[in-house]
Design a protein that fits this description.
Elements lengths: L11 E5 L5 E6 H9 L3 E7 L2 E5 L1 H14 L6 E3 L4 E3 L3 E4 L14 H7 L16 E5 L14 E5 H7 L22 H6 L20 E2 L1
Length: 210
């Protein structure tokens, strides 16, 4: 397979282990690398059924998708043809179980709170948000899911080193640890990744972003 163009290679692909359990999300570039080395196969969800394709058969069916279903797919172009970006791939020789814990990091907290300040309830770009300890560390507050929220610059400054009630602020909702990677929950809002839901219905499945 020739080197594909940059277009489409930044799309996201869900990776399953050999037992069809969700493991992580990778870029299309990484997915194609695994497919070309025959370490993975494409899993396509069509009318509720699962179909598996190797890189050669997926290349062939991509020509039909380009002709009849172009609006439903992203494509990368090689010297000779276009190939559809798979939404899901399955590792052929990897059956280890996915991690069950969701990482506590800035990206996941922003995703859990949907970039909404948990004090004023307004949505902000990431650059205008910060993380706030609901109970300040100076008062014994811990750095845990249940004590961290998104806060805009104004509300964070207003709250200072006080508890919300002392600053006249109220939480939009109690912060909790998500059962599933919140970045995945956000992405599932797009019809483009609707097929992922078939493999993310169980709360104990955790998808780690790489």
């Amino acid at each position: 397979m020739e080197s594909p163009s940059v277009s489409g290679l930044s799309c996201n692909v869900l990776v399953l282990n050999r037992l069809y359990m969700a493991l992580r999300v990778v870029s299309a570039r990484r997915a194609f690398s695994l497919l070309c080395r025959n370490l993975a196969e494409v899993i396509s969800v069509e009318n509720g059924a699962y179909y598996a394709y190797n890189i050669d058969s997926w290349t062939e069916i991509s020509q039909l998708k380009a002709q009849f279903e172009r609006e439903n797919h992203d494509f990368v172009r090689t010297v000779r043809y276009e190939i559809a970006v798979p939404r899901i791939i399955r590792l052929l020789g990897y059956d280890r179980l996915p991690r069950q814990d969701v990482k506590l990091n800035r990206r996941n907290i922003y995703a859990r709170d949907h970039n909404v300040c948990q004090y004023c309830g307004k949505r902000f770009p990431t650059t205008e948000l910060s993380l706030d300890h609901v109970i300040p560390r100076s008062m014994g507050g811990k750095t845990v899911w249940e004590n961290l929220v998104c806060a805009c610059v104004y509300c964070n400054a207003r709250k200072g080193g006080r508890a919300p009630r002392e600053a006249g602020l109220h939480l939009a909702r109690p912060p909790r640890k998500p059962q599933r990677n919140p970045v995945i929950n956000v992405r599932l809002g797009s019809d483009k990744y609707a097929s992922w839901k078939h493999f993310l219905d169980h709360a104990y499945w955790s998808v780690e972003l790489k």
